[in-house]
Design a protein that fits this description.
CATH topology of chain B: ABC transporter involved in vitamin B12 uptake, BtuC
Number of helices of chain B: 13
Structural class of chain A: mainly alpha
CATH architecture of chain A: Orthogonal Bundle
Largest sheet of chain B: none
Distance between the termini of chain B: 63 Å
Helix content of chain A: over 70%
CATH class of chain A: Mainly Alpha
Strand content of chain A: under 5%
Low-confidence stretches of chain B: none
CATH topology of chain A: ABC transporter involved in vitamin B12 uptake, BtuC
CATH class of chain B: Mainly Alpha
Largest sheet of chain A: none
Oligomer: heterodimer
Number of domains of chain A: 1
Low-confidence stretches of chain A: 350-357, 359-366
Number of helices of chain A: 13
Mean pLDDT of chain A: 90
Largest interface: A-B, 55 and 55 residues
Order of helices and strands of chain B: HHHHHHHHHHHHH
Helix content of chain B: over 70%
Radius of gyration of chain A: 21 Å
Strand content of chain B: under 5%
Number of domains of chain B: 1
Shape of chain B: globular
Chain lengths: 366, 308
């Protein structure tokens, strides 16, 4: 059973989804589309059959779980990592490279090597803005976003140049060797063990937050870096660095798992912006790792339904990006309403201890 | 490399620097009031689509620029409604506004013109050479053989500088960004100032987007803003929140974006994608070397009022 703060977060999420659905329906109606038909097409595309659920919705949710965890971890620590997209590409590049260079190595070496390479590459991609923040005082918001564009273009360069498939026609790499691929989780479907890995990592992260000293330190630094430092027992800079790198590693893993589990190759435009969607995933889950799994499946369904919506109702799939933006705005608005409601029932200023989706402390340098 | 190639490079530098300059000067005003608008990218892309649709509807590029400004204004008003009105987090709200801008413009464009990405035939914003100045060797045509939006940008920089540092309203705006408590005690309406500073920045970003569509590309394409909103925010830092320096920094970054023309002219066959990454890498390097020596407005990104 969720505790009191958990119920509040659930209420916020439910309210936000209701608001989003109404506004999205209104916008579609204004655009001359039939919202009911759009919803029906979405539902059948996402949940209409066992195949739709397992091979599309759940498969699509895997990168959302991992990048969602990356964002949740970073935001919890007060690190504004908007760079999951670039870290994901770094991970995908590393995974493809290891998977191509694997040769005849057995799977029990190659699969862990691919995943470790992806995580490492993501962490490395996060290291640049992390060091710029800690050493030079450059805020991470803009630097992580800039690193996204560098990562996207680096992947594009590689699949047009040094890593392009051997016929030299398409902007993609050759398929990675069999032994580097993730096995299917349910035989006969497209669902791979990456899904199980993501769920295990979510549980692990929840455990770290709840029961370990490190998890407490991350939450303390996120609530107030200065207060954490004043205690004299928390090395705030080390905690920020560790959270930043771990967040990058999770996002990098998302790219690696996508390549090793699903596409078996690096493509230009592999991710259509999952690293940004991850922010909506994490916020809707109130930065709770277990809840991230649920919201990630929801966004997986949204992406799965978008294709069906385009085919059956003629609505451009890019609509979904606008819907994701609506979800973020709706969460922010309803959470603000909740804060006001809580404040109106208490006398005096309200300490922000119940973990709303947005930490309110902020360093001066943005 | 011949003289014409260098002149073409300089022309492209200014043409690509102008949208950065417009967006960054607008963001300078916004940030001076204590609001960081990460949703600038959303205003730029909306300005680009608004500019294209406006130019088509009225048959004139001038009205297109106006429509672009309105589109950028509206997007920034949504952002300000959340951040200033509801006091939501500025970074997250801005990210959502950017996502929403990219998604909505893409959807509207596809609904109106189909998913194939056909080039539109728009009334474009043609260069208007300034007599005399345009004949200066080397830089004449680059600086003074541009679309009217460029001259607007040149003129705006000193005007905004004067407004910020020599007028009472400018002082109030800066006070709101540095010490909102003190400003409020002095009778300044903090949220009112922040709202208007934000939508002003959005309108300029909209003009920047319209310039991209009407003066640079001659068409609208999905995601054509290509991260310029984020580079513009970095340009504000590099220009130390001063409109004059911001204009200079933006033109420098225009040159970075136009670098590919220069290298191609020199006969260097570097891969296209590396050219595309270059402006972002340069921005990162510039931030790393520069930020320590500049100071942001003290209340930047902090919600107001603080309590509650």
């Amino acid at each position: 059973m969720p505790d009191r703060a958990g119920w509040a977060s659930l209420a916020v999420a439910a309210g936000a989804l209701a608001v989003t659905a109404s506004i999205a329906a209104l916008l579609l109606w204004l655009g001359g589309y039939d919202p009911a038909r759009a919803a029906a097409a979405m539902w059948s595309g996402a949940f209409g059959s066992r195949d739709a659920i397992v091979s599309v919705t759940l498969v699509r949710s895997v990168p959302f779980i991992l990048t969602g965890l990356a964002v949740a971890l970073a935001f919890r620590a007060g690190v504004w990592n908007i760079g999951a997209e670039g870290q994901l590409y770094a991970g995908a590049i590393a995974a493809a490279w290891v998977g191509l260079a694997g040769g005849t190595l057995p799977a029990w070496i190659l699969v862990p090597a691919v995943l470790a390479g992806a995580g490492l590459a993501g962490a490395l991609w996060a290291l640049v803005p992390a060091l710029m923040k800690l050493r030079l005082g450059v805020g991470e918001v803009i630097t992580t976003i800039l690193m996204n564009f560098v990562g996207i273009n680096l992947a594009a360069y590689l699949v047009h140049g040094p890593l392009q498939e051997s016929r030299g026609v398409f902007p993609q790499t050759d398929a990675i060797v069999e032994a580097a691929r993730l096995p299917a989780l349910i035989p006969g479907t497209r669902l791979h063990v990456g899904f199980a890995l993501a769920v295990v990592l979510a549980a692990l992260l929840a455990g770290v937050f709840r029961w370990t000293r490190l998890g407490f330190q991350v939450r303390a630094v996120g609530a107030s870096e200065r207060a954490a430092w004043v205690t004299g027992r928390i090395n705030a800079r080390a905690v920020v660095l560790a959270s930043f790198l771990a967040s990058g590693a999770l996002a990098g893993l998302a790219g690696g798992v996508e390549v090793a589990g699903l596409t078996y190759a690096l493509y230009e435009g592999l991710s259509p912006g999952w690293g940004y969607t991850a922010i909506a995933v994490a916020l809707l889950a109130a930065l709770n790792p277990v809840a991230v799994v649920g919201t990630a499946v929801l966004f997986g369904a949204l992406e799965a339904g978008a294709g069906a919506m385009q085919r059956e109702a003629g609505i451009p799939a890019v609509w979904v990006i606008a819907v994701e933006a609506l979800v973020i705005l709706a969460v922010l608005a309803t959470d603000q309403m909740r804060r006001r409601y809580v404040a109106s029932r208490r006398a005096g200023p309200t300490p922000d201890v119940d973990g709303g989706p947005t930490p309110q402390a902020r360093p001066a340098h943005v | 490399m011949s003289e014409t190639e260098l002149v073409l490079f300089l022309e492209a530098s200014v043409r690509l620097g102008v949208p950065l300059a417009l967006a960054a000067m607008g963001e300078t005003i916004t940030e001076r009031s204590g609001v960081i608008n990460i949703g600038l990218e959303g205003s730029i892309i909306s300005g680009a689509l608004g500019g294209a649709l406006g130019a088509l509807a009225f048959g004139s590029a001038g009205f297109g620029v106006l429509a672009g400004a309105v589109a950028g204004f509206v997007v920034a008003a949504v952002f300000a409604g959340f951040c200033v009105g509801l006091r939501t987090d500025q970074i997250i709200t801005g990210t959502a506004i950017t996502l929403g801008g990219l998604g909505l413009t893409g959807a509207v464009y596809q609904a109106r013109f189909g998913a194939t990405g056909t080039a539109l035939s728009l009334p474009t914003l043609a260069p208007v050479p300034i007599p005399g100045l345009g004949d200066i060797p080397w830089i004449g045509s680059a600086l003074f053989g541009q679309a009217p939006t460029a001259y607007f940008a040149y003129a705006l920089a000193p005007v905004l500088w004067y407004f910020l540092f020599r007028t009472a309203w400018g002082l109030e705006l800066r006070a709101v960004g540095e010490e909102p408590h003190a400003a409020q005690a002095a009778g300044v309406r903090v949220r009112w100032v922040r709202f208007w500073a934000t939508v002003f920045g959005g309108a300029l970003a909209g003009v920047a987007g319209a310039h991209l569509a009407l003066a640079h590309a001659g068409t609208f394409a999905e995601n054509m803003s290509a991260g310029r909103g984020f580079i513009a925010i970095a340009v504000v830092v590099l220009g130390r929140w001063n409109p004059l320096f911001v204009l200079l920094a933006a033109l420098l970054f225009g040159a970075a974006s136009a670098f590919q023309f220069l290298l191609q002219a020199l006969g260097l066959d570097l891969p296209y994608q590396l050219f595309l990454a270059f402006p972002y890498l340069l921005t990162l390097a510039a931030l790393a070397g520069w930020v320590g020596r500049s100071r942001a407005p003290a209340a930047l990104a902090l919600p107001w009022p603080k309590d509650r």
